[in-house]
């Protein structure tokens, strides 16, 4: 009897100890904020959405029912009353030295000035970043809360997430970084959702996850409940988007940054491709189903496999619009040819790739301009932060928004489809010629032992 009691006591102690260890190692903020509690009163299901785009001045295509990115971001700052949370792969808004060459470059500086002025308007600015920069020092000097993540220690990758959460009510997510180029010389696309607290709180949770990882050298195995996803591929947020019925959720990457219920980007893309009934249009900077590290490179089949299945087994029409630039990996073309060839002699199977290349440098090499990262199908859209390159999904942090419109009125997918068609039919989009590597790639085919998860070439050091 005695020994039995002893056993129970020891068991209880072990349990207590385990819970304590779990709490310590889970890096939870047990005392988090309370204001992300939602109820019917403040979870509005009537939201407004606009697609925002930056179209460089020297490219003669029109806004196809989209607003300018600059205007979209400023509208969010106009609305801000309490907080602005920003995550960006890098910061390079101060464009002073570029103003003479690129008139639109001043937009970067104007945005920076507005961000510097937020504190004076009693709006709290919070920034999560993985790299220090003079600009972030300046912002924190002006009262911004800046927290740094050591992505090298956490995932051996980079922070490629790019989104805003304003007052936990409005959001922006898309391809643009806080870079003057994103507001002038690059072609960017994103989405702004207004008055949508439920969705905004969910994106705020992804922001909070980064926020909690400051100073951490490892990723916690247990995440705080406050970081759990509110919506996922199983449980969408159902609402009215510009008056029509829609369902949405956010996804995030990499896999290890996944608290309870959060859908990963690859799962979200899989779902979007799987749900497509007629067509899939993909607009990306890079398409490369490879996973490379310093020591070796392997085939990363996740997305490539999904597309093959959609083509052969579901007879969907797929179109891929990829950026053609100097840094384009030569094997990109081999993979795309292989996809295109898959359709030979299969009726209703259609796969086409085009390369977007509007501008060349003085030496004739194609410049990096097309910076889109989205998919649109006949019933859904996915707008994300990551390129379709294996390393991006495996090592880098990013987020994405999936919106599906089950009804006949496809407000958002219709709009985005029009944007895709506009680019596809523009004179800047060149078809993939059989057996001929387009001139965007200057190096010869073959896998170099490069570490694909080094800085995206559109980064601050990209030459112009
Ligand atoms: C929603 O309302 C509840 C109770 O009215 C409040 O506690 C909570 O902070 C509100 N949430 C947000 C995000 O405003
Ligand atoms: C922007 O850069 C210029 C020159 O590099 C510098 O003189 C100026 O102080 C910077 N402005 C801000 C707001 O950082
Ligand atoms: C990030 O982590 C790596 C590996 O743990 C370490 O070598 C490096 O010094 C850290 N960087 C910073 C800025 O703390
Ligand atoms: C191809 O598409 C046509 C028209 O959409 C349809 O009638 C036909 O059944 C399809 N064929 C196959 C093999 O799916
Ligand atoms: C939604 O409505 C707003 C305001 O009426 C409009 O500006 C915007 O273009 C609409 N968005 C879409 C995707 O149709």
From TrEMBL:
Keywords: Signal
Keyword Kinase: no
Domain PLD phosphodiesterase: 155-182, 366-392
Signal peptide region: 1-32
Stored Pfam families: PLDc_3
Highest taxon of source: Eukaryota
Alphabetized InterPro entries for the sequence: Diverse_PLD-related, PLDc_3, PLipase_D/transphosphatidylase
GO MF term (any one): catalytic activity
Entry annotated with the keyword Signal: yes
Xref: PANTHER family: INACTIVE PHOSPHOLIPASE D5, PHOSPHOLIPASE D - RELATED
Membership in a protein family: Belongs to the phospholipase D family.
Protein name: PLD phosphodiesterase domain-containing protein
Organism of provenance: Silurus meridionalis (Southern catfish)
């Amino acid at each position: 009897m005695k020994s039995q009691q002893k056993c129970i006591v020891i068991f209880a102690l072990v349990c207590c100890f385990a819970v304590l260890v779990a709490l310590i190692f889970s890096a939870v903020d047990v005392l988090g904020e309370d204001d992300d509690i939602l109820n019917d009163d403040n979870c509005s299901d009537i939201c407004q959405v606009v697609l925002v785009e930056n179209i460089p001045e020297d490219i003669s295509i029109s806004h196809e029912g989209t607003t300018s990115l600059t205007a979209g971001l400023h509208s969010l700052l106009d609305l801000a009353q309490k907080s602005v949370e920003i995550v960006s792969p890098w910061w390079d808004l101060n464009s002073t030295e570029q103003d003479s060459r690129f008139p639109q470059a001043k937009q970067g500086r104007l945005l920076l000035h507005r961000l510097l002025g937020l504190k004076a308007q009693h709006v709290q600015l919070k920034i999560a970043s993985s790299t220090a920069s003079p600009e972030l020092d300046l912002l924190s000097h002006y009262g911004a809360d800046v927290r740094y993540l050591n992505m090298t220690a956490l995932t051996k990758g980079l922070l490629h997430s790019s989104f805003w959460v304003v007052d936990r009510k409005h959001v922006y997510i898309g391809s643009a970084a806080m870079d003057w180029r994103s507001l002038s010389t690059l072609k960017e696309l994103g989405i702004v959702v207004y008055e949508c607290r439920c969705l905004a709180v969910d994106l705020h949770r992804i922001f909070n996850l980064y926020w909690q990882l400051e100073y951490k050298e490892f990723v916690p195995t247990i995440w705080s409940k406050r970081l759990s996803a509110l919506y996922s591929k199983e449980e969408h947020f159902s609402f009215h988007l510009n008056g029509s019925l829609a369902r949405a959720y956010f996804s995030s990457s990499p896999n290890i940054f996944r608290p309870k219920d959060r859908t990963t980007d690859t799962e979200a893309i899989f779902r979007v491709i799987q749900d497509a009934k007629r067509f899939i249009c993909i607009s990306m900077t890079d398409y490369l189903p490879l996973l490379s590290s310093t020591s070796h490179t392997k085939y990363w089949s996740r997305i490539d496999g999904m597309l093959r299945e959609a083509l052969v087994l579901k007879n969907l029409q797929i179109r891929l619009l990829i950026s053609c630039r100097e840094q384009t990996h030569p094997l990109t073309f081999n993979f795309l040819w292989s996809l295109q060839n898959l359709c030979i002699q299969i009726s209703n199977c259609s796969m086409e790739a085009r390369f977007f290349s509007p501008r060349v440098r003085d030496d004739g090499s194609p410049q990096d301009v097309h910076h889109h990262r989205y998919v649109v199908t006949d019933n859904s859209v996915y707008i994300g932060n990551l390129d379709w390159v294996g390393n991006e999904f495996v090592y880098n942090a990013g987020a994405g928004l999936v919106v599906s419109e089950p009804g006949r009125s496809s407000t958002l997918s219709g709009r985005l489809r029009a944007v895709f068609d506009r680019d596809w039919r523009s004179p800047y989009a060149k078809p993939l010629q059989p057996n001929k590597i387009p001139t965007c790639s200057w190096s010869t085919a073959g896998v170099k032992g490069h570490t694909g998860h080094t800085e995206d070439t559109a980064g601050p050091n990209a030459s112009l």
